[in-house]
Amino acid sequence: MAATVIGQGIIIEGEVTSDEAVVVAGTVRGKLTVDGAVTIESGAVVEADIGATTLSVGGSVTGNVTASDRVDLLTGGKLIGDVKAARVTIADGAVFKGNVDMDL
Amino acid sequence: MAGFDTSRIGRGLVIRGTIRGEGDLEIEGRVEGNVDLDGELTLTDSARVKIESGALAARRVVVQGAVAGDIRATAAIVLEPGARVVGDLAAPSIGIRPGGLLRGHVSTSDSPAPARAAARSAPRREEAPRAPARVAPPPRRETPAAKPTPVAKPTPVAKSKGAPPPMMPSLKKGAKAQMKKKAGK
Fold this sequence. Notes:
The structure holds two protein chains of two kinds.
Chain A: E1 4-6, E2 10-18, E3 22-24, E4 27-34, E5 37-40, E6 45-57, E7 60-62, E8 65-73, E9 78-80, E10 83-90, E11 95-97, E12 100-101
Parallel strand pairs in A: 1-3, 2-4, 3-5, 4-6, 5-6, 6-7, 6-8, 7-9, 8-10, 9-11, 10-12
Chain B: E1 6-9, E2 13-22, E3 24-27, E4 30-38, E5 40-43, E6 48-63, E7 66-79, E8 84-86, E9 89-90, E10 93-96, E11 101-103, E12 106-107, H1 112-135, H2 138-146, H3 148-152, H4 154-162, H5 167-170, H6 175-184
Parallel strand pairs in B: 1-3, 2-4, 3-5, 4-6, 5-6, 6-7, 7-8, 7-9, 7-10, 8-11, 9-12
């Protein structure tokens, strides 16, 4: 389990900064900057710009996303915003609206 | 997976903003802002929490780390060894274990606000009796008022005395003695 888990009932509004992996199952509004992996679980709502090394989206994300390594948009995941990453995968059944920039 | 009912803010995490919601939460990292939780909140020894406005609120709060700000719990607050709290505590049940440090007001009543209001109004009641003491001086003022009439008399004398002195210097030294000698003759 990751060092940080933002659970289902938890709502964070503001700026979140971390140097270790973060799992979001609740709600985050604002800004999420992580020097590590970020996992957005199914049912999670993130209305924030995200910066991470790797990002996995199974929930709903609204905001611009930047990953130094990769972004994976999973089945059932929803991403509205621009994506900037070296590698991007979008699974069948995912919802995505935005630009992709893989020229990192 | 065991689900995500229990949340944890890791050691390397910094949150500037508000955390709210329901469920149990364990904070190992830093929070600057506000926490309002319907559940059990545990602040571990590495936790640094600074409450910017209002109070940290939860059903039950267990502190092992550092908190700057007021803590309010609907069930209980426990300060464990290593806890450092600068702020007021308010909960129906409060425990401070040996090794827990606190600087602030502690209230185990359900409503801490009225207790504080009474404490603040108490000094004001003490001030009220002082007012009559300040009323007393007026009689003293009457005595100075009576003095002006005698003082008024000296002033004309002072003026009559005041007028001649300039004349004195015009007389040469020893002139007055000569005048007296002439008068004596």
